[in-house]
Design goal:
single chain; two-stranded antiparallel ribbon; 316 residues; 12 helices; mainly alpha
Length: 316
């Protein structure tokens, strides 16, 4: 099994480097063609953190492991709200003046509730997937519309997040290398996760919710800690919330559009309601003084630890 654990770790590391290379390449290529730093940063913040989850989920579905894919997506959203924002706030309180959050957080709550309603028949079909994708497009339009009203401070933070070299050949190479590492890393990590689940007779949904979701989120956690230390609270919170929206609408929407996916009783009664609880609990944290304090960060981290313990204890 040591070899399997090594392949899992290798896969996740390759996904991490692949996502970083792809995003830097895409951002640099866009800026080299005249896209402003703020616009590139907005795209990186809104979509960038979802790239690892999207790649892992697509590979899992291609390999016939739908539960693993859905578990990774839902688990990543919970990790975004609980672990990433919570730990970052412990490093330094997260001041937020990001107007996008006024769009993203309500959409996240509504999308989570919609998943519960859509899944009452036990599955998500192509119609459900189409509705999720249409909502993702509407979300993108709303984000673009709200971006014109963002403050200068937010614009500087996002431009800083997207700062990179703009040479065309360098960025094309970054994109190609990034896609290769993403695909190979995701294939390895999914294969190893499936083998681990089979060896210990664990549910693939659980592996996705815990191991893959946490593994995919660790690179974003490291970036968020650095951003928090620099006082870039808008980048931390905006990325965590927006990427969760993209995970639910775009990633699950694409999966369901390809073929119907089953939603287990556990997902409908526990995991998706848990995500809804995290999103609803986070809402007043940024609607009041617009600062996620250290105390609030501690609450989020403790809630996430409690969530992980709930996942782990029945297995031991």
């Amino acid at each position: 099994m040591l070899e399997t654990y090594g392949l899992l770790l290798l896969g996740l590391v390759l996904v991490m480097f692949g996502a970083d290379s792809f995003l830097r390449g895409a951002s640099g290529l866009a800026q080299g063609r005249g896209v402003g730093g703020f616009s590139a940063g907005l795209a990186v913040v809104a979509v960038g953190a979802s790239v690892p989850e999207l790649t892992i989920a697509v590979v899992a579905v291609v390999r016939g492991h739908d539960a693993l894919a859905v578990g990774t997506v839902i688990g990543s959203c919970i990790t975004n709200l609980g672990l990433i924002i919570g730990v970052s706030a412990l490093v330094k309180p997260l001041a937020t003046s990001f107007r996008m959050l006024g769009v993203a957080l309500p959409v996240l709550i509504a999308a989570t509730a919609a998943l519960l309603l859509m899944g009452q028949d036990g599955s998500l079909g192509q119609i459900d997937g189409s509705l999720l994708l249409l909502t993702a497009a509407a979300f993108g339009w709303l984000v673009k519309r709200s971006s014109v009203q963002e403050s200068e401070a937010v614009r500087k933070e996002l431009a800083y997040a997207a700062n990179t070299q703009t040479e065309i050949l360098r960025n094309l190479l970054r994109i190609v290398v990034g896609l290769g590492l993403l695909g190979y890393g995701a294939w390895r990590s999914v294969g190893a996760a499936v083998d681990i689940a089979a060896h210990f007779r664990m549910n693939e949904l659980w592996i996705g919710l815990s191991v893959l979701a946490l593994g995919a989120a660790l690179p974003e956690l490291a970036k968020s800690i650095v951003a928090a230390a620099r006082g870039h609270g808008n980048v931390v919170v905006g990325s965590a919330v927006a990427s969760s929206v993209v995970n639910l609408l775009l990633v699950i929407g694409l999966i369901a559009l390809g073929r119907p996916i089953a939603l287990t009783t556990s997902l409908l009664h526990v995991e998706i309601p848990a995500l809804l609880a995290f999103a609803v609990a986070f809402f007043p944290m940024i609607r009041g003084d617009a600062v996620v304090s250290r105390r609030e960060g501690l609450v989020l981290v403790l809630a996430y630890i409690g969530w992980m313990l709930w996942l782990l204890l029945p297995r031991f």
